[in-house]
Each structure stands twice: as C-alpha cells, then as structure tokens.
Amino acid sequence: AIPRGLLGFVVTLHLLRLGSAQFEVVAPRHPLRATVGQDIVLPCQLSPAVDVRSLEIRWIRHQMSETVHLYRNGEDVYGAQMEEYIGRTELARDGLSSGILDLRITGVRPFDDGQYVCTVQDADSYGEAVVELEVAG
Predict the structure, then answer these.
(1) How far apart are the C-alpha atoms of 56 and 132, rounded to whole Å?
(2) Could you give the domains of the chain?
(3) Nearest-angstrom CA–CA distance, 137 and 39
(4) Which residue among 29, 36, 37, 83 is least enclosed by CB atoms within 10 Å?
(5) CA 10/CA 73 separation, integer angstroms
(6) pLDDT of the chain along its 137 residues, tens only?
(7) Which residues pair with 104 in a beta bridge?
(8) Maximum CA pair distance of the chain?
(9) First CA to last CA distance, the chain
C-alpha cells in the first residue's frame, strides 16, 4: 500500500500539472493602428487569468521568428532581443500576476509594422496569439 501522504502528494501534483495546461492566450482580432513616433501597447492575456510571473513569455515577429522581448524566470532577458527593439520594449509588469502580457513599444517606427506573436510556456504547456500592428505615417 502507498503511504497516505505520498498518495495525496501525487494527486496534488497531477492536479497542478493538469491545471497549468488549461490556459488560452487571447489577443485582439482586429489590427492595432499607430503613427510613427507614438508609443503603442500590444495587448495579450491569458484566459482564465493565471499568474505568469514564473512562466516564459516571449514576443516574436511573426515572419522573422525573431525575439522582440523575452521574459524568463521573473526577469527580462535582453541577450536574444532583435537589435531594432533594444531599449524600446517593456512588459507590463504589474499585470503579470493576473495573466496580462501586454507589451509596450516606444517610438513606433515604420519597421514595426506587421504581425507579432505573444507566446507563453511552462514545462507542460504552450500557448500563443497573434497581434497585428499597422503603422501609418
């Protein structure tokens, strides 16, 4: 027979594992519009709202598959960031505990026009959503 405490631990672990895989990444379906020089926030969130501070959050350019912003182990990681975004991106830290993954881009440039993918992953699961940005002017 399995000791009662161990069985409880195994059941709890299984529930946690199941729970962590059950999120969906949600972003607006319509394109966002910005003018050159403006700041823009690309909205993205988890449903249901889950604390994502311990997860890996990566924003990438859709066509290039290159990193716009990376957050891992509770901190921003700039080593893999595309040169064009250095010093121009910020993850909305105050929303992470409630599943908000919004990315602010400062001083929008014509280069920023296009699709962005908001990705979230932990050991067991992965989710993504696409945000489209149209830059005018």
Answers:
(1) 21
(2) 24-135 (2.60.40.10)
(3) 14
(4) 83
(5) 25
(6) 554 554 444 444 434 444 445 688 999 999 999 999 999 999 999 998 889 999 999 999 988 789 999 999 899 999 989 999 999 999 988 999 999 999 999 999 999 999 999 999 988 888 999 999 999 98
(7) 41, 90
(8) 71
(9) 71
Tokens (6 digits) for 22: 């059950």
β-strand partners of 129: 118
Integer Cα distance of 54 and 38 in angstroms: 31
pTM: 0.82
| H-type alpha helices, the chain | 4-20
Rounded Cα gap, residues 56 and 120, in angstroms: 6
Extended beta strands in the chain, E state: 24-26, 32-35, 40-42, 45-47, 56-61, 67-72, 75-76, 89-91, 103-105, 114-121, 126-136
